[in-house]
Every structure is written in structure tokens, then in C-alpha cells.
Amino acid sequence: MKDVQVEVEIRALRKEIEKHDELYYRQADPEISDQAYDQLKRDLEALEAAHPEWASGDSPTMRVGDDLVEGFESYVHRQPMMSLDNTYSKDEFYAFVERVEKALEFDSVAFVVEPKIDGVAVSITYENGKLVRAVTRGNGTEGDDITANALFIDELPGELKGTGLPEIIEIRGEIYMRNDEFDRINAERRAAGLDEFKNPRNLAAGTVKMLDRNEVARRKLNIVLYGLGFCQPEMVSAQSEFNQTLTDWGFPVGERIWKVRGADEAWQAINELDSLRDQFPYPTDGAVVKTDRLDQQDQLGKTSKAPRWAIAFKFAAEQAETILEGITLQVGRTGVLTPVAELRPTQLAGTTVSRATLHNQEEMQRKDVRIGDSVIVEKAGEIIPAVIRVVFEKRPSDSLPFVFPESCPECGAPTQKLEGEVALRCVNAECPAQIKGRLQHFASRQCMDIEGLGEAVVDQLVECSLVSNISDIYRLTYDQIASLEKFAEKSAQNLMAAIEQSKTKELWRLLHGLGVPQVGATAAKDLAKHFGSVASLREADVETLVEIDGIGEKTAQGIVAYFKSEANASIVESLFELGMSPTAPEMIDRSEAIFEGMSFVITGTLPTMKRDEAKALIESKGGKVAGSVSKKTTFLLAGESAGSKLTKAESLGVEVLSEADLFDKIEKGKSS
Ligand code: IVH
């Protein structure tokens, strides 16, 4: 690869991973499987390792995911919450054990093997035996204070049992939702005509981050504790001992925990866990193997984001073989025809699967999937199953390649491949499937988040000709909504209220919801910050748009073309006539952007500001704040008891600022 190709590839991977981080950690609504995500991270790690000149402290490979959201107080962990290195391969697992044994100069090291629970990481602080706080992992350094929600978890003791309790202890664990509770909630939503949740992990993550306490109380959450954070005074010397202490104190711990010595025993335990985990009350996606003795853990140390004394062995997604009985085509909001596999129903990861995604035409042709084939399907992380490959040996001799139709299966209009694109589209903007898609997108959680306006309701509204574009949503009357199937008085009122409330949501939500080609949530946020209103975005030309960090040529052209279309312009105008009044973000005043293009890292305790205040201040002046120091760091803002970041900055020759220096720079910036 040429240098520029590497650069482009690294940028693209970072952006892609950041998008999935946002979906997984903040929105609790991932689009891809954990395995696909782990693969992206590995690809990026490999590229960064081969091209250290492109390594960067704020690459997603260097930090843990970030789940911080608005609406919660943030709280700094006494001891950071790290993530875990993971592997899917036996060889890599053995290599991990070998590294540990070599570093400790010790054969048959003792390990603990525990289930890896697929939930939401949380840190619970007890002071003198009393629960005082529950905090999410956040960015690893600080998390959201979710104490009020955690108190609804029956299994979480408010007070610890026993004597000789520590003064302060942070205990780490995982909040999850049981499958039966997940099914119960979805059944209720189905009956109410609301969209169903995708899987228990997302629902647990979403619930933990809800501000509506009544709703949290209605959803039953559970917890498992497995880790020691800060503890004063220190009182245990091994993970196995800590697990026992947790049990004595009254906490639920891993369903089965193995104490083993050496790689072979550990490997055996991992396999045993795999055969048992179906019976556990929570979803598990792997085994966590931890060096048992804490002194050995200390000796092994950690990297910037994960301990060297532990590893997660992840179980590959479950697969099954079945017959592809048909291929249907779904027409999305942009008209793209997406092939869907209609399968002979088969059991997979505890559920019956009868449909799977074939992703897109190109992917389907690459895999040469044909009707009648035996195919391998996979369900990863309980997201939509996918067709992985064809079992060619079993292909019927008379099978033929699938031919994509010349007309749209939904509206009959001609299909077309646009220049430079691989996907086949329905070209009729009035196609009912496209209309429904656009409305669903607009109302979805990633956009205007109109509760109660899900797929089923949108379908009815379009079929009864009550709405045909997004502005029509704001013309709906109570009587019209109440006339829909399954709508009781209360739910009609709720939907009316949700529609009304959406008018003042954040601007980026509206920009994302409009469905401008190429503009996803991230670009929408960049645009909202930069322009502050739809009106000024409409006036921007391509040259102005490409100047903005994160907006490329193609996106810029998409935006300009979108507003040029008379149909779009009139929908946007109607929206505003009907009372749309989005909340503008705090805009950066360009004349104040004295730190534009500069990257800061903050460390230690500052004399007057909290770290997040300093971050907000720097960002308000156009600067970026990263988590760790690299060659690209412009300034290290250091307070009292700054540690390794200061040493690193000094060794790289990065200029170090005190809080006073920072204030000086801002003052000077103003006068210049
Ligand atoms: S120990 C220093 N033990 O998996 C890291 N983590 O992918 C200590 N997890 O962030 C983590 N089950 O949220 C540990 N038995 C277990 C776990 C577990 C689930 C989560 C945890 C961690 C993530 C890493």
C-alpha cells in the first residue's frame, strides 16, 4: 500500500469504529456483531503497528469505549475502569499464558476462569458497608452516576453483610437483563404497536441510562459482580479470594468460576464453560481468564487500556446450516434494493431463524448465493442473522444465479444503477416503501426519537394516506391517530405529545432525520455545531462545506443537491411552518477559535477547574482534547500529581501548560 492509501485506510477505519462505538456505547443500538467490530479493531491495530508514524493517542485502539451521555452527573473513578484484550483463537490464548508465565518466571501460574457476561459494565462504591454510588464505565476515567437507577436492582445489597468491611471499595460488575424479562417487555410493546427491542444487552444498556425513573422501575434488571477496583484498606490477595468475599457479602457472582493452573487446565475450563453457558441466566459471549494472585497482577501491569494479566476468550458466533428457499428484496428509504434470504426455519442460538440478511447485491454475487443452496447462517450478538457462505458441494445441479429485477417489487417503477454505485435502486421517490423508510428513519431513536412512531404505526399511516412525507407527521390530528388500529385514547395522546416534543429536539437530530445522502449522526453533529440552523446550512456551497472537519467532498455535494431539490426544499419549509424549532448547539465563535487544529491532553488535578470544565473550555475555543499523549499533542495541561502523561509529554517534547498558562493564552488570544 502507498503511504496515502494507508493514511486513508486508517482514517476510514477509525471513523468506522468511532461510529460503531457511538452506536454501541451511547445509543445501545449496534449495527454490527461484536465479532465484526473486533475484526475492524484488529485491522486498525495491524495497520497502526505496521505504520507507527500514523499511531495516535486518540485512536480508538488506544482507549476504552465511551458511554457518557447527557443528563447524568459524571464521576471520576478512584481507579480507572479498563477494558480487556480479547481473542477468538486457541493459539493466541496459549500465547497469552506463555507471556504471563515468562514475565512472572513461573510455570503453571494460577488463573481464574469466569463467564464473560454480555451486559453493561458498572462500578459500585460502598463506604463502610453502605452503597453510596453506582457509575458506568464512561470513558474509563469517569463515568455517569446512575445510582438512582441501580437502586432498582433487587440483587444489589444496600448494605454489606459481615464485619471487617473496607472503608471504601469500588466493586466492578455487569448489569444485564434476563431473557424472560426481555421477552415480557417486547410482548407488551408488540401489543401496544411499539417497536420491539433488538436484544437484552441493548435494552439493559438503554434502561441503565434512562432519566425516567418510573420506566426504569418497570423493567427488571439483574447484576453480577466480578472485579475489584479501588479498596482501602487493601484486604484481599487473590481474585479467587475476592469472589468468595463477594459471595459472603451477599452479591451474585459468576454462575460457575474455575480456579486452574497453566494453559491446558485453563483451556479445559473455557470449553466446559462454553458447554454450560446456555443454562446461565445471562448472555455470555466468552470466558475471562485472570491471573489469580493480585501481587502477580501488579507485576504484570497494564497497557493504556487493558491489563496484561487478563484476557477474554470470545466464543465464535453460533452457526447453522439450512436451505435458502427464496430471496426477497427490501426497498429502503433511499430506494436501494436489499436482498433478504428466506430460509427453511432452523434453530440458532436459542431462537428459530427463518430470515437472514444477504447485505447487498455485490456481497451476494461475491458469495454466489442462489435459491435452493444449502447455506451457513450465523447469529452474532443476537443481532440479525447473516448468510455466511454457500455449501457448494450441496448445490443442486439446475440452480441459476439470482437475477435482480428491472422493476421495483414494491411499486413497479424501473430499477437503476446510479453512476459510480454498486447498488440497484428503485428510482421512484414516491415508492411507498421509500416513503415508509424515510418516515421510520426520521422518527427513529438515532434521529427525532418520536416514541410510539415505529414501523407498524408508520406503515398504517402511509397505507391510510395520512402521511406521505416527514412534514405530514406534524399535520396529524388526534382523531386521525386514534382511528388507527390498536390505538387506545392514552396511546394516541402519548403519540401526539411525542410529536409535539420532537419539534424542539437538538438540531443534529433534525439534520440526521432529513435523510440527506451521506449525512449520518456524526456528520449531522458537525454540521449543527458549525451552522447552528437549517437556514444557514441551506445557503452553504460545496467549498464552504468541505472546509468543515469531518465533511468530505461527496457529503458536501450530497448536502447541496439535497437542498437544491424543490421537493426537499418545500418539505423543509413546511416543517418550519408547522412549528419545527430545533435547539441549536452552543456554537463555536470562529473569532474565538484560538485553539483550532490544536490537540490537548489534560492530566492531574487543576487548581480551580474540574477536568471536564477544562475540556469544555478548550473545546469552546476550537481545540480538541484527547485521552493520551502522542507526538501529535500540542499541549499537555497538567495539574497537581500529574503522573505518566507528564513524563511522556516531557520525553516527546510536548509543551506543558499550567492552568494559569492556559488562561493567559486565552486572554492573549482575545486581544490579538
Ligand atoms: S474483568 C480490568 N470479568 O467485559 C478489566 N470483565 O470486554 C476487568 N466483563 O470491561 C474486567 N464479564 O465490562 C471482567 N467476569 C468478568 C466479566 C467482565 C464481563 C466485561 C467488562 C469488561 C469487558 C471487556
Write the layout of secondary structure elements.
Blueprint: H1 3-26, H2 34-50, E1 74-76, E2 86-87, H3 90-104, E3 110-117, E4 120-127, E5 130-136, E6 142-144, H4 147-150, E7 168-176, H5 179-191, H6 200-208, H7 213-218, E8 222-232, H8 239-249, E9 258-261, H9 262-276, E10 284-291, H10 294-300, E11 310-314, E12 318-331, E13 337-348, E14 351-357, H11 361-367, E15 374-379, E16 386-390, E17 415-417, E18 424-426, H12 432-443, H13 455-463, H14 478-482, H15 489-502, H16 507-513, H17 521-531, H18 534-539, H19 542-546, H20 553-564, H21 566-577, E19 599-603, H22 611-620, E20 624-626, E21 635-638, H23 644-652, E22 655-657, H24 659-671
Parallel strand pairs: 2-11, 19-20, 19-21, 21-22
Antiparallel strand pairs: 1-6, 3-9, 3-10, 4-5, 4-7, 7-8, 10-11, 12-13, 12-15, 13-14, 15-16, 17-18
This protein binds 2-(butylsulfanyl)adenosine (IVH).
2-(butylsulfanyl)adenosine binds next to strand 3 and strand 8.
Folded structure, characterized:
The chain has 672 residues and is α+β, with helices and mostly antiparallel strands. It folds into five domains: 3-62, Helix hairpin bin (Helix Hairpins); 74-314, D-amino Acid Aminotransferase, Chain A, domain 1 (2-Layer Sandwich), CATH 3.30.470.30; 318-416, OB fold (Dihydrolipoamide Acetyltransferase, E2P), CATH 2.40.50; 432-577, DNA polymerase, domain 1; 590-671, Rossmann fold. Strand 4 and strand 5 form a beta hairpin. 34% of the residues are buried. The model has no long low-confidence stretch (mean pLDDT 89). The structure holds 2-(butylsulfanyl)adenosine.
